[in-house]
Protein: C-type cytochrome
Amino acid sequence: MYPAAGLAQTGAADRIPDTMEARVAACIGCHGPAGRGVENVYFPRLAGKPTGYLYNQLVAFRDGRRKYVPMNYLLAYLPDAYLYKMAEHFAAQNPPPLAQPRVNASATQISAGQRIVTQGVPAKRLPACVTCHGADLAGLEPGIPGLLGLRADYVSAQLGAWRYGVRTAIAPDCMQVIASSLSEPEVAAVSAYLASLPVTNARPARTAGARLPLACGSQPQPK
Structure:
């Protein structure tokens, strides 16, 4: 056998299969196997979130509307179709949820957060979180994520990112309006309450032309 032929055969045998699991291998280092999340770390769960939401975030990272250097770098040259396939992959995953760490917050703060999440802030004309994210906070198709299983510091950081323009969405950016209207104590209360909730494997609800209380560019409104 000629050496070149032997090398060719070895190369074919060692070639990584062209599967979606192989393509997203770089993602699981931070987001956990099947995108289930990682205990006591800032990176959120991807599994089971709506395809449209995941796709919008991948595009936002690639295009610089959402700023986090490792993600901006990883996605810089990936085309839309590739990103959509990645989004479909993680949306279809359903690994067991991770337990939430204990929330370091007072009962008063958690109660204040529950009031905002379930009733909104009428004085500021802000809708309740459940109005858009679902009564069980598991999200709504096609593009609104669930809010369960997120650490308090992650939720707080994302609301801050919207407030200061580090994270933006397609205009009109409804979350920027909401986040910039919340006070720091209100952000802390919402973050603490959401992180205190038990985590379930609930899937995003499929909406049938539901109208949202605010116009959101990333979530088509019925005509």
In short: The two ends are 69 Å apart (CA to CA). The longest strand covers residues 140-141.
